[in-house]
Amino acid sequence: MVQGQLPIADLRSRIGRPDCPAIIDVRRREAYERAADRLPAARWRDHREADRWADAFAAGSEIVVYCVHGHEVSESAAGRLRAAGLDARALDGGIEGWRAAGLPLVAKADLPGGDCAATRWVTRARPKIDRIACPWFIRRFVDPDARFHFVAPDWVGECATELDAIPFDIPDCRFSHDGENCSFDAFLAAYRVREPALEKLALIIRAADTGRLDLAPEASGLLTLSVGLSALTSDDLVMLERGLTLYDALYARCRDVPAESHGWPPKEIAR
Known about the structure:
Blueprint lengths: L4 E2 L1 H5 L9 E4 L3 H6 L2 E2 L3 E3 L5 H4 L8 E5 L5 H12 L3 E5 L2 H7 L5 E2 L12 E5 L5 H13 L4 E5 L4 H8 L2 E2 L15 H8 L5 H14 L9 H14 L3 H20 L11 H4 L1
Parallel strand pairs: 1-6, 2-4, 2-5, 5-6, 8-9, 8-10
Antiparallel strand pairs: 3-7
Helix pairs in contact: 6-11, 9-10, 9-11, 10-11
């Protein structure tokens, strides 16, 4: 591996976590425009202008750039960013190496807001489960800079127009309940993100949000914690920030430690 490159496994372990580095797609524009997908939470930037867009990041920020195969395009971009004072590395193997490893990708055609703009989303006030899970998915897999607005139920449609925002978890919109599925399921389907851990998480959310607690043993815990968090604050944005941590933990459980258990007495005491 070339010095300054980041192994695919290292980035994979941080996708979906709050400490994930900024991920920048620097494929040549023609390659990017032909492509159907990109890495989770990635934004496209022109690698030839890295000196200019480096100014958008604070000194020392951690950045991962990737091109098609991890060759001269991403290497040159990473070099420019390091010269600008950023902690930048190129993804070893590029997006094709990531794809070959069977890791999750996000459908590019369904990403709102263009290549660079932060997206806005609006839904009903007083979120508890699905309306926290959906922003978590957006922040961790679609747009880390996404902004969320919680408004009175009767005004979601009108506020979507006024705010130039995308509505979710209301009737008759793209990202909403469909039969037995929740809005979280609609997001996974729309962005075509396929991963066992996310599918397991979706089942837990579905069970807790629709009251079918028999579908997943974790559902009653999610319901209890979500209702408790909601009772602690009347500020929906505070609820969102606290809830993001809850879903970070649930995703880590589903992906990284699905079989870990806990009991008494601990092994070191039992001995």
